[in-house]
Specification:
The protein is an alpha/beta fold and 382 residues long. The protein has 13 helices and 13 strands. The protein folds into 2 domains: 191 residues, Rossmann fold (3-Layer(aba) Sandwich); 167 residues, 3-Layer(aba) Sandwich (Rossmann fold), CATH 3.40.50.2000. The mean pLDDT is 90.
Length: 382
C-alpha cells in the first residue's frame, strides 16, 4: 500500500522546542502510513535531521530573521527566494500534503499550496495573541484555508478560535517527549535552581534573576543557573543576553549565578529532584513549553508562571507550582520547595507520572499521523 507523502516546511534553522518535537515525530514515521521530507534553511535543524536519517532539502544558506514586534523588511528578498525554492522542491517531491511547522513557513506554504493545488496542514506552536497586528492579519489566510490546524495545546486552540473564528479547522495534539533512562551526566551534589531556554526577553530570565536574589537572602545552599543560548534569528536576543549578564554583575549575589551556556537536552544542565528545582518564568503565554515536559520526564519539581500551556501541564500544588509573573511570587514558590525536600520529591514524581501518561511520544505520533491522514482523505469534512 502506498504511503501518504508529506512535505514539512520550517523557516528557522535553529533547534528550538518545536523543532526538536518535530524531529521526534519525523524519526518515528517508519511505523506509520506517512513518509516525509523536511525543508528548512541550512543549519543545526537540518544537521540533526540528517543525523537521524530524515530526508531533507536545504532551502537557503541563511535563515529568515524573526521578531514579534514587526516584520523585517530585509527579509523580503530572502522570502521571495525561499518561496521560489519551496515551489521547486514541492513540484519535484509531489507531496500529498504540505505541513508547515513555523510562523513564516505557514504563510509561505499557504502561497505554494494555493499555487500548486496541494492541501495545507499547519502545526501551530504559537499564541496568536502575542503577535503584532500585521502578523495576525498575515496568519488569517493560512489558518482559515488550511484543512487542519493542529495546535500544541488547548491554550493555543482557544487563542486561534478567538482571533480567527469558527471557520478554522482546529484540533489539539499535545507534543510528546521521550523518557531518558540514561544516568544524568550533570549530576552534582550542589543544590541548584535552574531556568533554561532561548535568550528571548519574554522568557523572563531577568525576572528569574530578581527572584533568585530574594531567595539568596533566605538560603546559603542553592546556586542559580541560567542555561541557553542566543536565538540567531531573533534580533533582540543578543542584546537581551548582555542585559542579563550585566544584571548578574551588578548583583551582590553574582557569585551564586551560573551561565551554563547552550545545551542539547535539559538533562545536560540539571541534576536530580533532590538537588534541582526547575523554574519557567515566562512573561507571556508559552504555548506548550517543551522544557517543562523535559523537566517532568526527569522527575523535577517545577515552578512556572500561570500562563498558556503550563496550566495544562501543571496542577498547582500537586505536580508543581503555578505562580504570578513577578519576582516575589516566584521566589516565594521556590522557597516553599527549598524548605520542604519531601514536597520537591512528591511534586517531581507526580509531574513525571502526568507527563508519561499525557505527553508520550507514542500518543503524539499516533494522533498527528491520524489527523494528517484524515485531512488528506477529506475526513475532516472538506
Amino acid at each position: 500500500m502506498s504511503r501518504t507523502r508529506v512535505l514539512v516546511v520550517n523557516h528557522t534553522a535553529r533547534l528550538g522546542g518545536g523543532e526538536r518535537v518535530l524531529l521526534t515525530f519525523l524519526s518515528q514515521l517508519s511505523m506509520t502510513s506517512l513518509e516525509a521530507k523536511l525543508v528548512a534553511p541550512a543549519g543545526p535543524l537540518l544537521e540533526e535531521a540528517r543525523r537521524l536519517g530524515i530526508e531533507c532539502f536545504p532551502l537557503m544558506s541563511e535563515e529568515l530573521r524573526s521578531t514579534r514586534k514587526a516584520l523585517a523588511p530585509t527579509d523580503l528578498l530572502k522570502t521571495v527566494q525561499l518561496y521560489r525554492t519551496l515551489t521547486k522542491v514541492t513540484k519535484a517531491y509531489a507531496p500529498d500534503i504540505l505541513l508547515s511547522n513555523s510562523v513564516k513557513a505557514h504563510v509561505l506554504a499557504n502561497f505554494v499550496s494555493r499555487r500548486l493545488g496541494i492541501p495545507l496542514a499547519i502545526r501551530l506552536h504559537d499564541q496568536l495573541s502575542t503577535f503584532s497586528t500585521v502578523a495576525q492579519k498575515l496568519m488569517m489566510g493560512p489558518l482559515r484555508r488550511a484543512r487542519l490546524v493542529s495546535c500544541v495545546s488547548e491554550s493555543v486552540a482557544d487563542d486561534v478560535r478567538n482571533i480567527v473564528g469558527a471557520q478554522c479547522k482546529v484540533k489539539v495534539c499535545y507534543n510528546g517527549v521521550p523518557f531518558d533512562t540514561e544516568p544524568c551526566e550533570a549530576h552534582v551534589p550542589k543544590p541548584r535552581i535552574v531556568a533554561a531556554g532561548w535568550m528571548l526577553p519574554w522568557k523572563g530570565f531577568d525576572i528569574f534573576i530578581r527572584a533568585m536574589e530574594i531567595v539568596a537572602e533566605c538560603t546559603d545552599e542553592w546556586e542559580f543557573v541560567i542555561a541557553g543560548d542566543v536565538a540567531s534569528d531573533v534580533a533582540e536576543s543578543l542584546s537581551y543576553k548582555e542585559q542579563l549578564r550585566q544584571a548578574v554583575e551588578r548583583s551582590k549575589w553574582r557569585h551564586r549565578f551560573i551561565f551554563a551556556g547552550p545545551y542539547e537536552k535539559l538533562r545536560d544542565v540539571v541534576c536530580c529532584p533532590k538537588h534541582t528545582i526547575f523554574v519557567l518564568p515566562s512573561q507571556r503565554p508559552d504555548p506548550l513549553p517543551t522544557v517543562v515536559l523535559e523537566a517532568g520526564a526527569l522527575g523535577l519539581p517545577v515552578v512556572a508562571t500561570n500562563l498558556g500551556g503550563s496550566r495544562e501541564m501543571i496542577s498547582s500544588g500537586r505536580t508543581g507550582i503555578l505562580t504570578d509573573m513577578d519576582p516575589r511570587a516566584i521566589s516565594e514558590a521556590v522557597q516553599s520547595l527549598v524548605m520542604t525536600p519531601e514536597r520537591r520529591m512528591r511534586c517531581g514524581e507526580a509531574l513525571r507520572a502526568h507527563v508519561k501518561a499525557r505527553f508520550s511520544v507514542k500518543s503524539y505520533v499516533d494522533q498527528l499521523n491520524v489527523d494528517i491522514l484524515s485531512c488528506v482523505a477529506g475526513l475532516d469534512g472538506t
